């Protein structure tokens, strides 16, 4: 049985439809990531599930509990790091954790949480003087203080430098090791690919597709982009282009000066044939690459839109 | 975690946050102290006993009447003589223009036209000092006339005594001190809800709604912290008024407590109302400033309200600060009030303001919560 079930969620603000129709199930213990461009409805979806705003239509069940009947019980079992990461600015890290701990009937020890979010040495610093990454870690820590079964992280790494981002990834993976269920939203495809068990792509308030990152990438069309650049200039590139076009596996080509790009359904065979040709002619190839497929391509393939961070 | 422990923690956290916010100290403690001290230094020190008017005398011609009057004038204790001997008219004019003297008295020029003339700088024409000099000279003239008419002892004379409703005379210092205490407490309420605006803007209110914490407990904790700050304000301002400026206290505890609680609650409710429709810090501060400025001058904080023009009187009668200041004066310097109808009428007006402001504020907050995304 899934630990979280969202069915047909819908939310409109006046004439604006923030969420049109979103349904998914999350299994216990997995990291479930919702990705999508700004305004896709990620935060609205999360806030409906977190009980902050009532959906216009649809149902939400958290381990069989509903907001209408069991709001208190649900609040004990979920932990939230909201996008705004609001906390008491004039209190220290430790005081914030201690205060939030009193809101719950049972809570983790403050020391344990400090260790998990790696802020033990900054425990006496006021929130005001924390760096962006430290702040975000504390926000996650506040969401973990009640030892929740389900953790919601709304864009925890947005605006952080790569090192701080990696620190957050460690915390998220640690949560998984502890058996927690994590629902994550992010802007970064790389992050979704690295952390998620399953990815749900949303756009314009609807679920575009939902699966494991590997399965989503595998579902893309077979053609791969191959790039070559030639030391012998335009002439060599043009000759190679016409040679490639005659090969059956190449779908299309494009050339810019000495740089050639081609799309092939069998990139290995295409390259083998091309290298035979260049060797024969004595052309020197400077660079060769086969572009890796990523979730970004999945997004583009499913929505027909360019992805922007 | 039980309710009372949660409340204690919330109270401790709120108290810590207040201590750490420098703005709170400045606006709630230092600013009222500075304002009160300035007003007391400027307006509070004018006791009748050390009043002096600096004058000079011009004697155009020597004659018996003028000599007599001059020696009479020399007896008047409040006159301080710029020059013992009579001076020339040119010298006197210069002193007046330079404001070296408050007034110049011209003695009668001859025995026929017995007129006494007072010359003052136009700028000071309406000043209290001019009025006093003029009053004294009129007395002198009248005495001289009576003497000339042969009346030895005038049968009637006027005695004046000021009576206040309190057990002690209300000096201006007492009046200002209690007014400043009322203003400081009122501003604490009007401006104090700035945290709420910030908490909402930064999403902290939303964050707290994600937890099972009782918002009512949080509200109660911050209210208690505010009352403590209020008590501290009363003590500090009263101590400064009494020890530095010689204000008198005649405290009636029940009156003071009732006025303090109802007034503080009413102004906190007003602050709550302002916070409910202010989306930014600037908007909130603007509204709170307008409210506090209007009330400060109309409600008799610095000067008694009977000097207000007639059309402003009904406005004054409607404002809560008027009754807050009066209530605190009843409780702190008159030592009475709890038994009077007027006191309870004032308390009623304040309570009405508080209840209405709270209800509107709560409605606006509820609507904002529905619309919030």
What is the element layout, followed by pairings?
The complex is a heterodimer of chains A (309) and B (373).
Chain A: E1 4-13, E2 16-26, E3 31-35, H1 42-49, E4 57-62, H2 67-77, E5 78-81, H3 93-102, H4 110-116, H5 132-144, E6 150-154, H6 162-177, E7 181-186, H7 189-195, E8 198-203, E9 206-211, H8 213-218, E10 224-230, H9 233-246, E11 250-256, E12 259-264, H10 267-281, E13 285-290, H11 295-303
Parallel strand pairs in A: 3-7, 3-8, 5-6, 6-7
Antiparallel strand pairs in A: 1-2, 1-4, 8-9, 10-12, 10-13, 11-12
Helix pairs in contact in A: 5-6, 9-10
Chain B: H1 3-20, H2 22-44, E1 53-58, H3 64-74, E2 79-81, H4 89-97, E3 103-106, E4 117-119, H5 128-148, H6 172-192, H7 194-201, H8 204-209, H9 215-245, H10 253-277, H11 281-298, H12 313-318, H13 320-334, H14 341-371
Parallel strand pairs in B: 1-2, 1-3
Antiparallel strand pairs in B: 3-4
How many domains comprise the coordinates of chain A? Answer: 2
The largest pleated sheet of chain A is described as: 6 strands, mixed
Q: Total number of β-strand segments of chain B?
A: 4
Mean pLDDT of chain A: 89
The portion of residues forming beta strands of chain A comes to 25-35%
CATH topology of the largest domain in chain A: Rossmann fold
Separation, N- and C-terminal Cα atoms of chain A: 35 Å
Q: What portion of residues of chain A is helical?
A: 25-40%
Which structural class do the helices and strands of chain B define? mainly alpha
Number of helices of chain B: 14
Largest interface: A-B, 31 and 23 residues
The number of distinct β-strands of chain A equals 13
Rg of chain A (C-alpha, Å): 25 Å
Biggest sheet strand line-up of chain A: 5-6-7-3-8-9
């Amino acid at each position: 049985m899934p630990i979280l079930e969202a069915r047909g969620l819908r939310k409109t603000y006046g004439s604006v439809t923030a969420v049109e129709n979103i349904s998914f199930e999350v299994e216990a213990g997995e990291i479930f990531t919702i990705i999508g461009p700004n305004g896709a409805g990620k935060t609205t979806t999360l806030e409906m599930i977190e009980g902050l705003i009532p959906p216009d239509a649809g149902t939400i069940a958290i381990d069989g509990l509903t907001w209408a009947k069991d709001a208190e019980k649900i609040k004990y079992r979920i932990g939230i790091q909201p996008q705004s990461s609001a906390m008491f600015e004039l209190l220290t890290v430790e005081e914030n954790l201690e205060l939030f701990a009193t809101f719950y009937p049972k809570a983790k020890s403050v020391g344990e949480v400090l260790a998990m979010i790696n802020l033990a040495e900054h425990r006496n610093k006021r929130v005001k003087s924390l760096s962006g990454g430290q702040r975000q870690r504390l926000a996650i820590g506040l969401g973990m203080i009640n030892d929740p079964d389900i953790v919601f992280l709304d864009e925890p790494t947005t605006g952080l430098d790569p090192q701080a981002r990696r620190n957050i990834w460690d915390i998220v993976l640690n949560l998984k090791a502890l058996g927690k269920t994590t629902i994550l939203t992010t802007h970064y495809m790389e992050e979704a690919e690295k952390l998620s068990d399953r990815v749900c792509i949303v756009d314009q308030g609807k679920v575009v597709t939902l699966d494991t990152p590997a399965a989503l990438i595998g579902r893309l069309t077979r053609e791969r982009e191959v790039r070559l650049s030639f030391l012998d200039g335009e002439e060599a590139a043009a000759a190679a282009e016409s040679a490639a076009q005659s090969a059956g596996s190449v779908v299309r080509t494009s050339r810019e000066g000495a740089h050639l790009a081609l799309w092939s359904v069998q990139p290995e065979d295409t390259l083998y044939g091309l290298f035979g040709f260049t060797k024969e002619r004595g052309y020197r190839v400077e660079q060769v690459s086969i572009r890796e497929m990523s979730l970004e391509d999945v997004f583009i393939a499913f929505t027909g839109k360019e992805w922007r961070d | 975690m039980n309710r009372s422990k949660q409340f204690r923690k919330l109270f401790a956290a709120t108290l810590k946050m207040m201590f750490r916010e420098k703005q709170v100290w400045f606006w709630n403690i230092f600013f009222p102290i500075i304002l009160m001290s300035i007003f007391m230094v400027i307006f509070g020190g004018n006791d009748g006993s050390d009043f002096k008017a600096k004058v000079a005398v011009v004697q155009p011609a020597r004659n018996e009447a003028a000599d007599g009057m001059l020696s009479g004038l020399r007896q008047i204790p409040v006159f301080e003589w710029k020059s013992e001997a009579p001076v020339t008219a040119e010298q006197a004019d210069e002193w007046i223009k330079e404001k070296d003297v408050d007034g110049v008295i011209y003695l009668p020029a001859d025995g026929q036209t017995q007129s006494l003339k007072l010359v003052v700088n136009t700028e000071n024409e309406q000043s209290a000092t001019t009025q006093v000099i003029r009053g004294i000279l009129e007395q002198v003239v009248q005495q001289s006339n009576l003497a000339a008419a042969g009346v030895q002892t005038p049968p009637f004379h006027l005695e004046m005594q000021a009576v206040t409703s309190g057990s002690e005379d209300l000096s201006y210092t007492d009046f200002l001190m209690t007014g400043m205490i009322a203003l400081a407490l009122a501003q604490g309420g009007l401006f104090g809800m700035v945290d709420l605006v910030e908490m909402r803007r930064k999403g902290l209110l939303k964050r707290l709604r994600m937890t099972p914490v009782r918002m009512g407990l949080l509200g109660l904790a911050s209210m208690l912290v505010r009352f403590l700050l209020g008590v501290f304000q009363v003590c500090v301002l009263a101590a400064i008024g009494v020890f530095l400026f010689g204000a008198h206290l005649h405290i009636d505890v029940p009156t003071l407590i009732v006025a303090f609680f109802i007034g503080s609650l009413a102004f906190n409710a007003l602050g709550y109302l302002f916070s409910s429709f202010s989306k930014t810090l600037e908007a909130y501060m603007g509204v709170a400033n307008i409210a506090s400025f209007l009330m400060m001058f109309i409600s008799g904080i610095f000067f008694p309200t009977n000097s207000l023009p007639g059309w402003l009187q009904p406005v004054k009668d409607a404002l809560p600060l008027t009754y807050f200041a009066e209530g605190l004066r009843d409780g702190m310097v008159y030592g009475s009030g709890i038994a009077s109808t007027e006191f309870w009428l004032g308390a009623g007006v304040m309570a009405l303001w508080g209840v209405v402001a709270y209800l509107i504020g709560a409605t606006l907050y509820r609507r904002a919560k529905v619309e919030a995304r």
